[in-house]
């Protein structure tokens, strides 16, 4: 078995890893030829990573020209604890206020601790309203690479 195979996450491990409230690095292709990377919060809906951002943001302008992107979510502070998921894929730009509201609500639960199931309707309405000015970036994976160095059990 290759070293690469040893550290690969299973589908279940990958889903659990992405379910935690981590920050993603979203990279698009800038018009100047250089990668454009931004730190983003995200939601996982129907197994796909979703971002919500302003329609006039540089990342949206980049994706309108070239839908290819990379998303990196990682953690660990030493070699033996490094874990991550790298998704290379294409962006679907969805201009749907209802979906943007869903993404905003999901992120509110993940990052701000909003108990979505118990939150008052007016609080959820405020969160959903924030989505009205945003475009959703739905990531359609083409290639996924994962790693969990803890699986090496100290053997490097």
CATH architecture: Roll
Spell the H/E element sequence.
HHEEEEHEEHHE
**What is the fold named in CATH at topology level?**
Pnp Oxidase, Chain A
The CATH homologous superfamily corresponds to Electron Transport, Fmn-binding Protein, Chain A
Low-confidence stretches: none
What would the principal axes of the Cα set say about the shape?
Answer: globular
Give the % helix. 25-40%
First and last CA, distance: 14 Å
The largest sheet has its strands arranged as: 2-1-5-6-7-4-3
Reported for the largest beta sheet, the result is: 7 strands, antiparallel
Write down the CATH class.
Answer: Mainly Beta
Estimate the strand proportion: 35-45%
**DSSP strand tally:** 7
- Tell me the Rg in angstroms: 17 Å
Structural class: alpha+beta
Tell me the domain tally. Answer: 1
- Helical run tally: 5
For the residues shown, what is the average pLDDT?
Answer: 91
């Amino acid at each position: 078995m290759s070293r690469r195979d040893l550290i690969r996450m299973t589908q279940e491990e990958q889903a659990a890893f992405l379910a935690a409230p981590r920050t993603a690095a979203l990279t698009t292709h800038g018009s100047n030829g250089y990668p454009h990377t931004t730190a983003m919060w995200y939601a996982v809906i129907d197994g796909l990573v979703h971002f919500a951002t302003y329609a006039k943001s540089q990342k949206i302008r980049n994706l309108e020209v070239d839908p290819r992107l990379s998303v990196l979510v990682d953690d660990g502070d030493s070699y033996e604890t490094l874990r991550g998921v790298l998704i290379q894929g294409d962006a679907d730009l969805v201009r749907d206020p209802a979906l943007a509201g869903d993404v905003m609500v999901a992120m509110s639960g993940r990052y701000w601790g909003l108990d979505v199931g118990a939150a008052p309707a007016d609080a959820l309405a405020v969160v959903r309203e924030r989505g009205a000015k945003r475009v959703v970036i739905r990531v359609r994976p083409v290639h996924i690479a994962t790693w969990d160095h803890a699986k090496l059990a100290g053997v490097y």
